[in-house]
Amino acid sequence: MSEQHTPLWEVFIRSRNGMSHRHAGSIHAADAEMALQAARDVYTRRGEGLSIWVVPSAAIIASDPSEKDMMFEPTGDKIYRHPTFYEIPEEVGNM
Amino acid sequence: MYTQSLNTAVQRDGAEEDPQKLAAFQAKIDREEKIEPNDWMPAAYRKTLIRQISQHAHSEIVGMLPEGNWITRAPSLKRKAALLAKVQDEGGHGLYLYSAAETLGISREEMVEQLHTGKAKYSSIFNYPTLNWADVGAVGWLVDGAAIMNQIPLCRCSYGPYARAMIRICKEESFHQRQGYELLLTMMKGSEDQRQMVQDAVNRLWWPALMMFGPSDKDSVNTADSMRWKIKRFTNDELRQKFVDATVPQAEVLGITLPDPDLRFDEESGHYVYGEPNWEEFYNSIKGNGICNKQRLKDRVKAHTDGAWVREAALAYARKERERREAGKQAAE
Ligand SMILES: [Fe+2]
Ligand SMILES: [Fe+2]
Predict the structure, then answer these.
(1) What is d(CA B116, CA B68) in angstroms, rounded to the nearest whole number?
(2) What ipTM score was computed for the predicted complex, to two decimals?
(3) Predicted TM-score of the model (pTM)
């Protein structure tokens, strides 16, 4: 008999207050509560975090890498969105 | 991982790859850019990685057995706590690596089955027994030491999830090696019997540790592809040499000898020259006929089957809770 698959969860950890949660890896668990506990055991054995999020992997919608250019290229030539595009006389100092 | 959904269309073996895509892929690797799970990759790259990462994961998991053997008999609370933490780390390493392999489109259950049916290999080192307490120290010093040599270059591997798992693992390995070496140092300061136990453990584990780097370059297949794809950065013999060069001076500090009559420092090259490992023993162990192969697999399979009811119960409970929540929602509408 082939075994039933245990659901996959993505784990996000806030390393300390003031930082945002960051993707740490993934974990298999039957439900959310067990996923949190497993994430604690697997990803925070040395004080790596103060807060954990677990999200069902199937709930994440990812952009398609083959459409990367269409998605992100339009910002590539918009150099006027950066401060260095604008020239300010030196005597003005930092701005 | 979240990336699996796009990974369903894996090319079949031997299928011709699109030369344009292939060239773009190699160019990306040559620019030291990482390959991420949903990116296009040649089928052979995917297959090589699945094999390597899953076997690496299996090694971490099977590696828990020889050391776990000593947890209940650790000589002090301090040593017991350290050993428990180390064995738990190895379990964690296995899990990071299984997750990395899963991003390539293989399921956890499939990998576990490949291990349990003997289809997938794991590191030959774990088929040696841990006969006395000094073995725990020698494993930490030599086996984790060899693993570190192997794993540091893998932190720069071209496949993103594998590289990230390795960075996490490498951060934890240093504790493994140091606690082992310190354990041996402590025994060397003890009685003559204890010193002999250390020497005995090192005599038995030195050669198997050298074999952890795999067959000699002249006999090893797959190296060229792995180097071109930047999965591997150094050849087996290069890594083995680095390990010998780093370890011989540590043995001197410890005050033991290494069981190799050919071992000597070569002034000209600045490296240690060492003898030829017994490759027949290595291939035997890989083929399943090492000292503990049968025992290790038996223990793994037993742990897995004994836990089956727990996994089933957890899934049944999760289903029941979900149904209860949904019924509650409907009732409220
Ligand atoms: Fe490990
Ligand atoms: Fe380790």
Answers:
(1) 19
(2) 0.85
(3) 0.90
